[in-house]
Amino acid sequence: MMMDLRPHQTQSIDMLRNSLSKGLNRPLLAAPTGFGKTVVAAQIAMMAAKKGKRVMFICDRIKLVQQTLETFDRFGIDVGVMQGNHERTNYSAPVQIASIQTLARKQHLPIFDICIMDEIHSLHKAHKKLMEVYNNLPFIGLSATPYSKGLGKYFNDLLVPITTEQLIDQGYLCEVDYYGGRKANLDSVTRRALPTGGTDYDPKSLSDATEKDEKLVGDIIKNWLKWAEGRQSIAFAPSIRHSKELVKQFNEAGITAEHIDGYMDEEEREVIYKAHDNGEFMILSCSRLLNTGYDAPRVSCCIDCFPTFSKIVYQQRIGRVLRISEGKEKAIVLDHAGNYGRHGPAESIVPDVLDDGTQRYSEKDLLKNKKETKARQCPQCTQQMCGVRCKCGYEVPMKQREMESTDEMLTKLSPEQRNRKHTSEDKRTFYSELLLFTRSKGYKDSWAAHKYRDRYGVWPNAIKPIWVPGISNDTHDYITSSQIRWAKGKGKVA
Known about the structure:
By secondary structure, the chain is α/β, with parallel strands linked by helices. The chain is built from 17 helices and 17 strands. It folds into three domains: 7-162, Rossmann fold, CATH 3.40.50; 168-396, P-loop containing nucleotide triphosphate hydrolases (Rossmann fold); 400-489, no CATH class.
């Protein structure tokens, strides 16, 4: 069967072919939600098979094997599945589909001429082993969020044929509106390192803080009724326990909702998925399960109650509601996590480079839209907006912009205000980041101690530094503003 490819899909294949012809045999295709990356993979597999090549397609989860198989079957590709006693096991087929978990358990490595690896931001040690053993063969990586630490050590060409915003403009994805609501106080929540690099909130600490907020669930329900009533919705909660409580409260309010998680039997999950797709209940709630590999175009609202510092998690999550469907004009995100304020619109996040592991890791450094802007509520349409202009046409008046800029600078330079709202964990992180900056510049540690004292009025004698992955925007801003003050005091700035 001939494939009718979209222009950006054809362009991506041309870009991959060009990359491989240059000897860059590890290209990574940044394929946003709605790109149709499985269709592109099917086209590549079909072209390679026609030339007598053996192709291996690797999914990052067992669940996605069946979805990939259905797409490949649609185009009449001769496919075998490597997964236990799967009914489609056929080792003689030129194209094989397997999960990375299945390959990791195999005693003998599969034989192939070209390998396509899906969702490669979740880089498994079995991926690395394959690439090391078959170091002369081409490996094509696919990911909507290629921001993981060290990806550049395994892939040598980042290809971005189209962005999410462009897919929206061209009608392949729907527009999205963001609304902010009440969110839990996270001042006491600790962080932990992520396998993809960077840090994120510790799950237990985050769950405890969220569950203590008795008014939060009520506000979530109230906002859903105001902005999204009647929409098929999915919800993300900080824990399974919180998701179940959310579902309980929705049902008590007369809104049909169900919880789903990875501990359920696969058959039970499939029943729940189908019931939601059929409109038998309105809200499907989880903690993490729906974050990737969930494809339900009818869903048009994301209830985000799960704060995260990871752009990978955030962008994947919002991508679940962007697919087009008949009668679906736009998607809605109800942000009860403050993620819009941390990251901005998910559709505007675009990868720029791959992290090669040689410098301080920061997801922000891998993005084209590196500048972070303050989120606010539009007084005209009440949506969340970044910058001075909203999608509805409202523009922040010039005088208000000047006042807000002045207020922000005064807040940054006020040690008293910072002491009132910074926890001991914040102060320890701040001092640790100062030390990281100090050593990167070749300064003495006493420089960091003086900067800490300037901000908080005391020496950091009792503070034990911790490992930090990099220097936050807040610390960077404080260092910059303090250096400007010092320069002005010396008469070096007009």
